[in-house]
């Protein structure tokens, strides 16, 4: 479980002080809930996210345990250092928007023909409840040749999960190398 603190002051100076001390600024929100301004130790947060196995994870803020999902994050354009993260509370039975990561398996045929495997859509936006949320979308790319794509309409998602991208959007494809 990830430990964090609740921020008391929202001033620019307080935020700078927290960042200097190695904290990552976070916003935690949910449907019908009051927003919580929090901070996590940056290195602990990154280690925790790399080792988690599900999209939803628990955070402890001053004894209050919440199940959250990373919705969005901001990085410094120069140093690529993580600056801010938005966490959404995963409420049971409430249909909300999530972004499911795409993973590929196998080696595409087109790679032998001087092609490049391109993951066009790294995270697929879907709308469902937290109970029905899959951890990732795994695609087998072994049969993809140069010029072939797997589109949104080719994905097999469970019944109660709605994807609101255009069905013609490519997820993974093999392009010809120049």
List the helices and strands in order.
EHEEHEEEEEEEEEE
CATH class of the largest domain: Mainly Beta
The neighbouring-strand order within the major sheet is 1-3-2-6-5-4
User: What portion of the residues fall into strands of 2 or more residues?
Assistant: over 45%
Total strand segments: 13
Q: What structural category arises from helix and sheet content?
A: mainly beta
Question: Radius of gyration over alpha carbons?
Answer: 19 Å
Protein name: Large ribosomal subunit protein bL25
Function: This is one of the proteins that binds to the 5S RNA in the ribosome where it forms part of the central protuberance.
Subunit structure: Part of the 50S ribosomal subunit; part of the 5S rRNA/L5/L18/L25 subcomplex. Contacts the 5S rRNA. Binds to the 5S rRNA independently of L5 and L18.
Family: Belongs to the bacterial ribosomal protein bL25 family. CTC subfamily.
Please give the structural blueprint.
Elements: E1 2-6, H1 12-20, E2 23-29, E3 36-41, H2 42-51, E4 56-61, E5 64-75, E6 82-89, E7 96-105, E8 115-119, E9 123-128, E10 137-140, E11 149-151, E12 162-163, E13 170-176
Parallel strand pairs: 1-4, 2-6, 7-10
Antiparallel strand pairs: 1-3, 2-3, 4-5, 5-6, 7-9, 8-13, 9-12, 11-13
Pfam families: Ribosomal_L25p (PF01386), Ribosomal_TL5_C (PF14693)
InterPro entries: Rbsml_bL25/Gln-tRNA_synth_N, Ribosomal_bL25/Gln-tRNA_synth, Ribosomal_bL25_b-dom, Ribosomal_bL25_C, Ribosomal_bL25_long, Ribosomal_L25_dom, Ribosomal_uL5_bac-type
Domain Large ribosomal subunit protein bL25 beta: 97-177
């Amino acid at each position: 479980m990830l430990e964090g603190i609740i921020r008391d002051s929202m001033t620019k100076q307080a935020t700078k002080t927290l960042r200097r001390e190695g904290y990552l600024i976070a916003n935690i929100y949910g449907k019908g809930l009051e927003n919580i301004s929090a901070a996590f130790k940056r290195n602990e947060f990154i280690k925790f996210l790399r080792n988690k196995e599900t999209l939803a994870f628990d955070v402890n803020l001053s004894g209050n345990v919440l199940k959250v999902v990373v919705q969005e994050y901001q990085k410094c354009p120069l140093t690529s250092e993580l600056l801010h993260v938005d966490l959404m509370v995963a409420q049971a039975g409430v249909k909300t928007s999530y972004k499911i990561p795409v993973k590929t398996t196998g080696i595409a045929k087109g790679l032998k023909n001087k092609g490049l495997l391109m993951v066009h859509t790294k995270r697929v936006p879907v709308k469902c409840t937290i109970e029905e949320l899959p951890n990732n979308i795994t695609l087998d790319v072994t049969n993809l040749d140069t010029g072939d794509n797997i589109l949104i309409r080719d994905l097999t998602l469970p019944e109660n999960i709605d994807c609101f991208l255009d069905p013609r959007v490519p997820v993974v494809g093999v392009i010809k190398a120049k």
